[in-house]
């Protein structure tokens, strides 16, 4: 079997069109068409890239007497999954689909109390003949509806558990060429990931600015309540930006994790991330609880600069304790 026939069969085996293969090879569709029509032969670099993408050896592609469509590597140990390029791509697609569903659920839960604050603000000014009792009832009903919708999204993620278990719940090894392909994909995606992560974190940081400014310069309760709703909305926007892109980047990293060596720097970053996941939501809850209890919004904003300094001190303390642990 000649090279042209092998390219056609391998491409169709993966379900790719000529355009899709051309995109992965960074060539034009016409080039792929010429290869498959035996009108031209790929150069050596393209042969190597084809072997990595199709998970076959270069000998298989170049030697006409090689007819068997077998992958280069078999599982080295029993019980270890052998992940092909197609399976790795499907895993990433499922992780992205799961992230889209989870993001909707998280946004629903974060935005659940926004109608409550809006109705309370309307009750403060007696707009729409809104009373405090009516505002409370409507707000609580909206909270329950939003939370129920959010939970329903979380439940839907169960449909992908079987598809991702081969990589996340069991030891695996990558087929020949998969690591280099995904390493390149992650490298190209890193700039997009960093940009969206920065934008999302910016939304988190500035989310309390409107509330802080209104608290300092205005004591009208309806405006303050509306700014709380704005704070929640900006947090939801930040999560909507960060969660999908983080899931995709993590999916690439999970595929490559068999070759990743955890450094001391990465371990420190993980410890700081775990602390942040607990610390900042707790600080936000303390800020809102203290502010609503005392209604001293012009004073309670001091929680944020003090909390930022305290977070740095806690990170240092965690590292000190970890260093002393045998």
UniProtKB/TrEMBL annotation:
InterPro entries: Cro/C1-type_HTH, Lambda_DNA-bd_dom_sf. The chain crosses the membrane at residues 96-122, 134-155, 195-217, 223-243, 278-296, 302-321. It comes from the Bacteria. It holds the Pfam family HTH_3. Residues 7-61 form the HTH cro/C1-type domain. Keywords: DNA-binding, Membrane, Transmembrane, Transmembrane helix. The keyword Glycosyltransferase does not apply. This is Helix-turn-helix domain-containing protein. SMART domains: HTH_XRE (SM00530). It comes from Shewanella subflava. The keyword Mitochondrion does not apply.
